[in-house]
TrEMBL record:
It comes from Neoroseomonas lacus. Transmembrane segments: none annotated. The lineage of its organism: Bacteria, Pseudomonadati, Pseudomonadota, Alphaproteobacteria, Acetobacterales. This is Sugar ABC transporter ATP-binding protein. GO terms for biological process: carbohydrate transport. Belongs to the ABC transporter superfamily. The chain holds residues 1 to 238 of 373 of the full protein.
Length: 238
């Protein structure tokens, strides 16, 4: 079953056409990576998938429902951004439970969710700390924890590792991949990093100037790039 269907999506900001007709279909449980150079429209597309931004034309369906027909609070989507934006005065636990408090989730269910997620992400020893007492990687995990307690079927990441140093980035790639296997959610992951795309994706959409240049599995992208842009950008010989 397709978990996400994007059809004919176009978007302009003023005179600039940022998305020029995007069609993508993502299977349930897939790890789709949107990769392309800065400014090619990745974040705009992700925001449209999340329903945070309306498409100029076209549709986004998640599990056969049109995204914009669903109230934001009822959307089964969680998003992790590049800047983690944790609340600095709250503890890790409060950061994780804040969204559930806003939705009036009963206290016991909140505690269970915190326990499950903090064990999964190995932050169960850090629940009483403030964000300023955490390392970059730990903060990143808390941000993921905050998204995970929603138990989303669709998980959106926008360059979540680009503020981390190289070594930690490699570790976190593995962690996110393992997380994907364990929770079985569908993931759409934005990056400008080719290696990240090749190592994490089940399928890759290579974007350039508001268009998808190729949509295929990593091996096909590497061995049979669709055009010169894909060949050069993904680092395969032309
Ligand atoms: P990426 O995430 O691939 O770097 P973006 O989707 O952020 O690209 O941006 C694509 C293009 O759209 C860029 O040229 C950017 O300047 C422009 N853009 C993005 N958001 C806005 C906005 N809210 N208003 C005007 N232009 C925007
Ligand atoms: Mg971006």
């Amino acid at each position: 079953m397709s978990a996400l269907r994007i059809a004919g999506v176009r978007k302009r900001f003023g005179a600039q056409e940022v998305l020029k007709g995007i069609d993508l279909e993502v299977d349930s449980g897939e790890f789709l990576v949107l990769v392309g150079p800065s400014g090619c429209g990745k974040s705009t597309l992700l925001n449209i998938i999340a329903g945070l931004e309306a498409p100029g034309e076209g549709t986004v369906e998640i599990g056969s429902r049109l995204v914009n027909d669903v109230e934001p609070k009822d959307r089964d989507i969680a998003m992790v951004f590049q800047s983690y934006a944790l609340y600095p005065t709250m503890t890790v636990r409060q950061n994780i439970t804040f969204g559930m408090e806003c939705r009036n989730v009963p206290k016991r269910a909140q505690d269970e969710a915190v326990e499950r997620v903090s064990r999964l992400l190995q932050i169960d020893q850090l629940l009483h700390r403030k964000p300023s007492q955490l390392s970059g990687g730990q903060r990143q995990r808390v941000a993921m924890g905050r998204a995970l307690v929603r138990d989303p079927t669709l998980f959106l990441f926008d360059e979540p590792l680009s503020n981390l140093d190289a070594k930690l980035r490699v570790e976190m790639r593995l962690e996110i991949k393992q997380l994907h296997r364990r929770i079985g959610a569908t993931i759409v992951y934005v990056t400008h990093d080719q290696i990240e795309a090749m190592t994490m994706a089940t399928r890759i959409a290579v974007m350039h100037q508001g268009e998808v240049q190729q949509f295929a599995d990593p091996e096909t992208i590497y061995n049979r790039p669709a055009n010169l842009f894909v060949a050069r950008f993904m680092g395969a010989p032309p």
